[in-house]
Known about the structure:
Helix content: over 70%
CATH architecture: Up-down Bundle
Order of helices and strands: HHHHHHHHHHHH
CATH topology: Na+/H+ antiporter like fold
Number of helices: 12
Strand content: under 5%
Structural class: mainly alpha
Distance between the termini: 10 Å
Amino acid sequence: MSLAAILFPDFTLILLGFLLMRITDWGQPFWSGLEKLVYYVLFPVLLFYSTARTPFDFASAGKLLQVALFATGCGIALGWLAKPLFRSGPMVFESGVQTAFRFNSYIGLAIASRLGGEQGTALMALIVAFAVPLCNFAAVHALVHKSGGLLAELVRNPLIVATASGVLFNLLGLHLPEVVAATMSRIANASIAVGLIAVGAGLRLSGLHEAKGLAAYFIAVKLLALPLIAYAAGSWVGLTALQMQIVIMFCALPTASTAYVLAARMGGNGPFVAFLISAGTALSAVTLPLWLSLVR
Length: 296
């Protein structure tokens, strides 16, 4: 399957969400409810279903996780390197640094499914389960310089809980009843399309009134530096072809929309983060195909 066939449907759904948000009068409560449905119901079912059914070679998957977490750690370090390099206003750096390493799980799981089917989705789910705590800790630390309550937040995170439950279900050798598996399969399929539409609805291509150099730096780290690091590290440890595709795609993902929510709720610069998320998502339509072309 060509890269255009893999990526075009997903970015078309993002564009559809962007247009629907602007040409309909459904209102913000509708879109907020849709986002909650995806986050708390649809995507957790997808993660559990994928990890519960897919056989894992955990020795091989360990290398994948090492590369993904190493690259994420490099993203955190490169993000903090911007503090002495750029002068910015109050809460601009603290709010924006998370966009150098956080990732959009919805886009990642959608592309992983098209790259490797259930196996690709399961590998991406494993990365999500381990990378989300690391990224959340680093993002919260930047905004408040403390991690109070973070552990409880992570334990309640539906994406982490669903993935951990699915892996445990798998390791215990359990099997889903056919009727349950069929129902979960339909929910999992719906989650990808609805999640991508929700991503598009949340795009905001405004809000950059300051720190343009800092914004460019964060976007370059996320879309260019991290996948390059993953490519080098993955080649070094000898990842399989599918694992290399998944980890490079993961590192080349734009920032999650939850970065805006975190910044807004913790007194940060919400408009600045919203622009970084939106610009990164738009640019990733160009950079993602380039990175994936290196490993196909």
